[in-house]
């Protein structure tokens, strides 16, 4: 149905999102699942733009019987992004937990809904999400997080979201 794989300049994310969205909106599936796909891509792109200080971004999207979305950047990583805002996660696993809980690096009074909400969708869809940054990989599946060490360390952040295509109530999950 839809396959996309590119490595692009960080500066082209907005234009690339517009092109991707036009193609995804043509897919024949439930409107709510399409909203989930577009929301996920949009939030992952926003995270790269606002936090990563990346130069290049690798994007892979496959929508067939399953849905796979992967966005990886060559930026500073989650932990360093928090450290620059004087938030001190003890390690990369803690930085991932901060991001999944909604702790924003933009403003202490704001919540970061991106990864937090994507996680809620993945749990509702019974899918999985993998986040890699620094020395740590986190697998989020069935309301659990499993951490493992990466060797060598991962530059930047990679987020992979994989789920079966299912009917969902987008607004019930996002509330």
Question: What's a quick, concise take on this entry?
Answer:
The protein has 175 residues and is α+β, with helices and mostly antiparallel strands. It has one domain (2-174): Histidine kinase-like ATPase, C-terminal domain (Heat Shock Protein 90, 2-Layer Sandwich), CATH 3.30.565.
The CATH homologous superfamily is called Histidine kinase-like ATPase, C-terminal domain
The topology string of helices and strands comes to EHHEEHHHEEH
* Main beta-sheet annotation: 5 strands, antiparallel
CATH class annotation: Alpha Beta
Give the mean pLDDT.
Answer: 92
Low-confidence stretches: none
- The oligomeric state of the chains shown is single chain
Tally of separate helices = 6
């Amino acid at each position: 149905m839809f396959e996309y794989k590119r490595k692009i300049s960080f500066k082209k994310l907005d234009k690339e999102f517009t092109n991707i969205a036009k193609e995804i909106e043509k897919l024949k599936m439930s409107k709510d699942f399409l909203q989930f796909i577009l929301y996920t891509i949009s939030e992952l792109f926003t995270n790269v733009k606002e936090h990563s200080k990346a130069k290049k971004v690798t994007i892979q999207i496959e929508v067939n019987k399953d849905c796979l979305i992967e966005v990886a950047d060559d930026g500073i990583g989650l932990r360093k992004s928090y450290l620059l805002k004087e938030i001190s996660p003890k390690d990369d696993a803690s930085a991932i937990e901060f991001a999944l809980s909604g702790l924003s690096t933009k403003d202490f009074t704001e919540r970061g809904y991106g990864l937090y909400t994507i996680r809620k969708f993945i749990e509702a869809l019974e899918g999985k999400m993998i986040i890699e940054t620094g020395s740590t990989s986190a697998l989020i599946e069935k309301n659990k997080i499993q951490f493992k060490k990466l060797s060598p360390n991962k530059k930047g952040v990679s987020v992979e979201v994989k789920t079966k295509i299912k009917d969902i109530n987008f607004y019930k999950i996002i509330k």
